[in-house]
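Below is the record:
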Amino acid sequence: MAVPENDQFLRALRRQPTDRTPIWIMRQAGRYLPEYRELREQAGSFLNLCRTPEYACEAALQPMRRYPLDAAIVFSDILTIPDAMGLGLGFSEGTGPHFERPVRSVADIKALGVPDPHQELRYVSEAVSLLSREIGDRVPVIGFAGSPWTLATYMIEGRSRSDFEHVAEFLRSEPEQLDHLLSILADSVALYLEAQIEAGASVVMIFDSWGGILDGEDYVRFSLQPVERVMKKLGPVVPRIMFARGGGEQLTEVSRIGCEAIGLDETVNLRAAREEVGQTCALQGNLDPAILRADAEDLRAAARALLEDYGPYPGHIFNLGHGITPDIDPDQLACLIDEVQKFRAVSA
């Protein structure tokens, strides 16, 4: 795989010295951009936008035209795998994703199979391929998937919920069957990410959005071990990032699953995280997305404070602690990127 002209992101992922701290933003393609809203209207629906490679490629390119970002990320959704399993994915305005046929029984789990990424999920690989050709050798392209645990929570609940009632019941009454579901999903995620790598992704990221609802041994068993299974199947062909939302208290355990970098949410102290795992993994993050609503002076100060908190060490990728929200003025992101990129060079 050719090294891009701008390899700051790849070097940081390998904890090598960089000229400056690289930056990209979770959900950098999305509703805060007026051109994205126009594209979404043209596509007719969010799902059609995701499932049409030309639309998905255009959505991923839009922020790259606006900003000097250090990586592009394929435009897709973390729920494409359970959708390909036949659960009937839909999106409702105001309530988000939902499944027509959630997984609520052992029989439901036994009916699931591993989707073929070259068939049911071919549209994602095609979008990665288009994006890689359009980006050329400018910056790396990131492919991604939801973690097995996060996918399982949506599949069992049927929609995003705060109480996780049905997941809690599975944990209590059918933990072995939950293990089986997670193994199916781990195999599915590994094949899916392999297909994205084959299509041109030079980095892959796993979003573990709901691991933080688990404690202690349950977090290791149901969240980390399935991701570790994915990491072993992938191998170190390309750098791998684990976004461990809510996993700040178990970073040492996260660092042992085989990823090259850990994505941190905004609740984690960056300096403490570097001191704990910075010799093992690069760190990505973790500015509070809400700070993008502050005035320019305060926004720049917050960015500088985070960079200073990490210190003059390699292995930092600047990002938010979660995705950028739809209400953000695009000029605010331009201000943030400018402040990060003019900050002092990272020393060896």
Remarks:
- The mean pLDDT is 94.
